[in-house]
Amino acid sequence: MSRVGLHLRVPWTSDSLVRMPKRHASRSFLLIAASVAAAAALCAQGQAPPALPKLEKIKDDLYLIANSDVTPEAMRYWGGNITVLLTKDGPILIDAKYARAHDDVVAKVKSLSDKPIKYVVLTHNHGDHSEGAPALEAMGATVIISNDDRENMARAPNPTWLPQVAFIGQSRLYLGGKELQLMQYRGHTRGDTVVYFPASRVIVLGDLLTTSDLMPPIVNYGDGGNWTDWTASINEILKMDFEYAIPGHGPMVTKAQVAAIRDKFVAIQQRVRVLNREKKTQEEVSSTLMNEFHWAPANNIPGMIQELR
Ligand SMILES: [Zn+2]
């Protein structure tokens, strides 16, 4: 199994991790400044910011904070999905969106529970899932991530915040009579965390799965992801007993839909292997994948050509 060590920028997700200024006071200020700058940039382009995220009920104790517009623009502004599990001892969040979503996220969780947020589990290190975590920690939550993706965060230029709790392989969270199973897989990054709720047979897959055609699955080679491990991970995950899967971006899907996405990306990999044997150029590989699969993220193609020789 070949390993590639390229550092590639991906089209719709930040691999620049969490960039936080050093101290809390200046952090809040800079976060506000960053939000204002982003809003100003949108206004300068004559665009209103994307609509606020929406709150969707999945089960009595399980909610999704999802972008109202399933577009790359809304993703770049607000970030990925947040899953909320309610327990009698406080809510648990899976992922944290961008920092500018903080007030809206806190208000939405408050509308569900008067208890403080107890834990935030990060599916991986990318900013659209993790940038909001430090402000939740400052409110008293404990932030958990896989040790490998914590190391991805630590490798970023000038990291100023890192989660205090990291696990290797597997972990369990027990709170208020509820159980969460945390499992580490490799694919989108080297340490993707999958969160399984056995009581409701729902699984949160982070960016191992995205379900919008506008934001299809990609791997981040720079953070240790690759398509060979992605496929093995999804195959393992499909052996588990779940009904619905919550992706990093896009709407919740059934287990059968997860299998269909797996099949599509297995076919794409097989096609790249054939194109490699035919010594096709990067441009030819891209145009073939676009024509046949409507998928060809520019920053995944060079890594795939290397990986799938
Ligand atoms: Zn990501």
Would you give an account of this structure?
The structure is a single chain. With 309 residues, the protein is an alpha/beta fold. The chain has a single domain (24-254), classed as Ribonuclease Z/Hydroxyacylglutathione hydrolase-like (Metallo-beta-lactamase, Chain A, 4-Layer Sandwich), CATH 3.60.15.10. The chain has 10 helices and 13 strands. It has helices at 24-44, 72-78, 102-110, 127-130, 133-138, 147-155, 227-238, 255-277, 282-293, 301-307; strands spanning 54-59, 62-66, 82-85, 92-94, 119-121, 142-146, 165-167, 170-175, 178-185, 192-197, 202-210, 244-249, 253-254. A 7-stranded mixed sheet has the order 1-2-3-4-5-6-7. It has a 6-stranded mixed sheet with strand order 8-9-10-11-12-13. Helix 8 (255-277) runs antiparallel to helix 9 (282-293). 44% of the residues are buried. Residues 1-36 have low confidence and may be disordered. Zinc ion binds next to loops. Zinc ion is lined by residues 13, 124, 126, 188, 207.
What would a concise description of this structure say?
The protein is an alpha/beta fold. It has helices at residues 24-44, 72-78, 102-110, 127-130, 133-138, 147-155, 227-238, 255-277, 282-293, 301-307, and strands at residues 54-59, 62-66, 82-85, 92-94, 119-121, 142-146, 165-167, 170-175, 178-185, 192-197, 202-210, 244-249, 253-254. The structure holds zinc ion (ZN).
Keywords:
309 residues; alpha/beta; Metallo-beta-lactamase, Chain A; 10 helices; 36% helix
CATH fold descriptor? Metallo-beta-lactamase, Chain A
Span of the ends, CA to CA: 10 Å
Reading off the top of the CATH hierarchy, the class is best stated as Alpha Beta
| Global outline | globular
Task: Report the major sheet.
Answer: 7 strands, mixed
Ligands (ions, cofactors included)? zinc ion
Note the total helix count. Answer: 10
Low-confidence stretches: 1-36
Beta-strand content: 15-25%
Q: What's the domain count?
A: 1
